[in-house]
TrEMBL record:
Keywords: Isomerase, RNA-binding. The keyword Lipid metabolism does not apply. Residues 58-120 form the RNA-binding S4 domain. It comes from Flavobacterium sediminis. Belongs to the pseudouridine synthase RsuA family. GO terms for molecular function: RNA binding; rRNA pseudouridine synthase activity. This is rRNA pseudouridine synthase. InterPro entries: PsdUridine_s_RsuA/RluB/E/F_cat (IPR042092), PsdUridine_synth_cat_dom_sf (IPR020103), PsdUridine_synth_RsuA/RluA (IPR006145), RsuA_PseudoU_synthase (IPR050343), S4_RNA-bd (IPR002942), S4_RNA-bd_sf (IPR036986), TruA/RsuA/RluB/E/F_N (IPR020094). Residues 1-54 are annotated as: Disordered. Residues 1-11, 20-30 have a biased composition (Basic and acidic residues).
Length: 290
């Protein structure tokens, strides 16, 4: 055995650098065997930057809802059914985003989104929300025509003899919310009767009155302070003003005047009869959360 071999046996670390065996690569360059700690950092690959969302783009269902055609949920159904085109092409993709300059057609009609507007009117007599009562009769829309260029609609219906608060908006989701039979917002009405309301009849109303086969309940009914017993305050959740009339007509009273003095927290304060105003941002938030 050669001295060199003997030395290898005695010095197992010989022929190695730092205790690690040195190998020759096929290219003649040295490389460390597996287990070698990494002395050199590998250069990190540059990460691709996330594409920023375009603030001017808007989801197609929201675009349709903003135009006043229907709610977002209903817009999804129209989109899936192939009734919506963008730039002449049918779009059925949920989440599709409309870009500035795109032309959107809904059921063949070109639409544009509108800013949501909320207008509160203190309605006078002889203006109706329906053209069914009298043709060519004055409409409540005539009273708010100069409020906005948006296509405003009244929230609920009000006959021409009823006065008081009436909300207008182009927010179809809000209209649907407040005209739903399940809506839970409180309204307050002042009712003027042709004669004094008997106390026992007041108690009957408080206990619930059956109208057209359905039990109708009020939240509260009271005589108005410092007024004749024919002036009554009624608090209830229904948006159907006809129900308020029918409650008293069921007990053989005639309603001389019906005035809505509160609607979902909104009041007539500083709003004279026949005038309108825009809702504040806080009032809009309250309405949506009510």
């Amino acid at each position: 055995m050669s001295r060199h071999q003997g030395n290898d046996r005695k010095n197992p670390g010989s022929g190695r650098q730092g205790g690690f065996r040195k190998e020759r690569s096929s290219r003649g360059n040295d490389k460390f065997a597996s287990g070698q700690p990494k002395f050199f950092k590998q250069e990190a690959k540059p990460k691709s930057k996330p594409v920023a969302a375009n603030p001017d783009e808007i989801r197609l269902n929201r675009y349709i809802a903003n135009s006043g055609m229907c709610s977002r949920r209903e817009a999804d159904i129209y989109i899936q059914s192939g009734n919506v085109k963008v730039n002449g092409e049918v779009v059925t993709e949920m989440g599709y985003k409309v870009k500035p300059g795109d032309t959107v057609q809904f059921d063949g009609a070109t639409i544009t989104p509108e800013k949501k507007e909320y207008v509160l009117l203190n309605k006078p007599k002889n203006f109706s929300t329906s053209h069914d009562e009298e043709k060519n009769a004055p409409s409540v829309l005539d009273l708010v025509r100069n409020a906005s260029r948006a296509k405003l609609q009244p929230v609920g219906r009000m006959d021409k003899t009823t006065t008081g608060l009436l909300l207008f908006t182009n927010d179809t989701d809000l209209i649907k919310k407040f005209t739903s039979p399940n809506q839970r917002s409180t309204k307050l009405y002042q009712v003027s009767l042709d004669r004094n309301l008997k106390f026992e009849d007041l108690e009957k109303i408080q206990g619930g009155i059956t109208i057209d086969g359905h039990k109708v309940f009020v939240e509260e009914i009271t005589y108005i302070d410092n007024e004749p017993k024919s002036e009554i305050g009624v608090k209830m959740k229904t948006a159907n003003i006809k129900i308020v009339r029918k409650i008293f007509e069921q007990l053989k009273y005639n309603v001389i005047k019906l005035d809505r003095v509160m609607f979902a927290g909104l009041t007539k304060k500083n709003l004279p009869r026949g005038n309108w105003r825009f809702l504040t941002d806080q009032e809009i938030i309250n309405l949506k959360n009510s």
